[in-house]
Every structure is written in structure tokens, then in C-alpha cells.
Amino acid sequence: MQTTTCRWTKETGWDLPVGFAGAPQLVLYFGATAQLDAGAPAVRELGARFPQAVICGCSTAGEILGGCIFDDSVVAAIVQFKSTQVRAVVEFTGAHADSSTVGQRAAEKLLAPGLRHVLILSDGLSVNGTALISGLAENLPSNVAITGGLAGDGARFGKTLVGLGDAPKRDQVVAIGFYGPDFFAGYGSRGGWECFGPRRLITRSRGNTLLELDGQPALALYKRYLGDRAAGLPATGLLFPLELTKNATDTSGLVRTILAVDEAGQSLTFAGDMPEGWYARLMKANGDQLVDGAAHASSAAALNYSFGSSSLAILVSCVGRRLVLGQRVEEELEAVVQTLPAATKAIGFYSYGEACPSLGSGVSELHNQTMTITLIGEKA
Q1: Tell me, what's the pLDDT at 96?
Q2: 366 contacts: CB under 8 Å, gap ≥ 6
Q3: Which of 209, 264, 350, 366 would bridge with 129, disulfide CB 3.0–4.6 Å?
Q4: Which residue in 121, 13, 5, 7 sits closest to 71, CA to CA?
Q5: pLDDT > 70 in the chain, percent
Q6: Distance (Å, rounded) from C-alpha 147 to C-alpha 198?
């Protein structure tokens, strides 16, 4: 397996090495919404240069290349496998499409002998990430993990874009399947957030829309905690996500962040399910713990990696982590890169949600506010 990473800007175009040659099977790109919209010249150029490759990507809340983060650009990884086969499918997620059904259809199209791993890139606003991943998992073998993330749009929450082959569009999900005995995928996902305040019972919800906590309108209650920061919702909600636990005594659970608010209905919409009867608790961040969490995610992804050839690390970190870390954001990336195997290229994006098997259960789920890493490689 050979991997080249590069970056595109309006001023310079792609910075691929002069005389680059090869016939890659996969080209992954992640870019600012403005640069993937309006015809996406960067993506068109990739398509013209690598017509035989699976070319797919999404919009971001920041582009990751190596240990650096960029804005208003596009980054790409060009991957040439020795024996691994790559297939990708695209499904429509908008107009109230059922996210579980979308996942089921994608899985059915990818299901074939030799499937080893599925990477997803999904619209970040028109999908219920929990249902999407559940639909995929229900129709895939239990040994096929699902990783990836939800596209971003900075802290604007205006529109997110996903593409396969042509210009990226709204309301799409792309699922990429990797096939063959020589393919390897490792993964890890960690947070680093702290809970505070009382646990509150979810007394009324509808899918990923939270209506009531302890019998009170969810938005009004949440605003009381945020105080002056409530005026900046939904963006300021990234600083104070909720932890979900099935029982009031559970010591850890899933993290959820807000995508939208409904003043008329006094509800909050999240990236994944908010099940009635579960408990929710506010969380806050500590910069050192976020950086440590990123390093632990990298260690988990590389735990069983022992191949001698080069590898690619796909980093998906929540936009909320970026906002909290501020000027320390590159510390998170440096902690990851330093922990990866030698000869590993790193690429990724800041997201509205992350997909990865959960620690302990091994069940693929939607996460928020984590650093999630997918390490792919091939036997030498």
C-alpha cells in the first residue's frame, strides 16, 4: 500500500509531487464547505487526474493534514493498494428519509465476499447518525466494523456536503467498503469530557429530538444552564454536550451534541438518538484531558497493527473539541501523530459526529465530542 497526501487552495491548486505517477484505487478528500460548493474545482481536478479511482469526501469544520489543521482548503489522501479492492455507494438522506433504511440499503449494496471494513461519510445535518449506523450494522457481518463521521460546516450549521465521484451535494451518505484478506483496519475513539450537575430523566423525545427532561421543556432547561451563552445556540451547545446513560448509576455513556434548536417547540435536535427513559447529564471540557483522550484513541487504533508497509490514519474529531481547545487544537493532533506507527500518513476533518465501535462492547455506534481514528493498511 502506498499513500500520498496533499492540499489544495484557491491560490496554489493541488500540491501533488511533480511527476506523480500511479493508479490509486481510493482518493479521500475533506474540505471547507465554500471550496466544495459551486462546482468544486478541487474535486473536479481529482476526478480528471484519477479517473479509475473511487473519489469521495465531505465538508468539514476544519481540515486535518498530518499534525496541522487548516481552514478554507481541501486535503486529500491518494491510496494505492497492492491487493485490496475498494467499492463505494451513495444514498440520499434528505426529505425525511429514514436514516435506518438508508443504512440498510447501503449495507446491502456493499455486502459481498471478502468485505473487511466500512468507512462512512454522511451529511451532518439531515441524518440521525444513530439510526444510520444501526441500519448499516444490522445488515453487515458482526466482524465488519463501521467507522467514519458526519460532515461539518464550521460552527455555522448551515449546510454540509458529501460526494462520490461528482461534486459534493447536500443530503447524501457515502459508504466505502474494503475487501480482501490483506486489508487491515484498526480504530479507536476517546473523549476526555467531565460530567457535572444532576442526571435528568429523558421524559419525552422523538428519535434524535429531545423534548422534555424531568417533565420540563428541554430547551428552556438547557438555556438555564448556559446563561448568557444561550444566545449563541446551537454553536455554543458544542461547549456543553450531554452524556447519555441507560441507568442512573452508570459510570459512563454516549456523548451527544446539539445540531439545532426549535424555539417554538422548545426542543433540541442532536446528531443521534435521545431515548426516552435514559438519563442525560451536562458535560464540560478540560484541555489536558481532551489531548490525553486523543492520544489514547491513537494508541487503541494502532494496538494490533504490526504490518511493515505504510498506513493511513483517518482522523475524525468533533468540532466541539476544536472550539474548546482553541489555540491548543494542534496539541490534539500532535498527540495522535506521535502515537501512530512509523510511515503513517494522517488526514481527516473536524466533524458533527463520529462513528466507531464502542470500547468494551465492540458495537459500532455514533459518538460526539470524541477523537476517532481509523488506521488502514495492508500486509506487505
Answers
A1: 63
A2: 129, 130, 132, 133, 254, 271, 272, 353, 354, 355
A3: 366
A4: 7
A5: 98
A6: 32
What is the Cα 230 distance to its own chain's centre?
A: 26
Grid cell of 361 as nine digits:
462492547
Number of Cβ atoms within 10 Å of the Cβ of 21 = 5
Phi, psi (rounded to 5 degrees) for 334: -65, -40
The rounded distance, in Å, linking the Cα atoms of 159 and 227 is 27
The H or E element spanning position 288 is helix 287-301
pLDDT digits 0-9 by tens, 338-363: 999 988 999 999 999 999 998 767 88
> Per the structure block, which three cell numbers stand in for 156?
455555522
Residue 255 pairs in a beta bridge with: 243
Long-range CB contacts for residues 37-43, cutoff 8 Å, separation at least 24: 37/161, 37/168, 39/167, 40/163, 40/167, 40/168, 42/8, 42/14, 42/74, 43/74, 43/163, 43/166, 43/167, 43/168
Please write the tens of the pLDDT for every residue from 178-195: 999 999 999 999 998 888
**Does position 317 have pLDDT exceeding 70, yes or no?**
yes
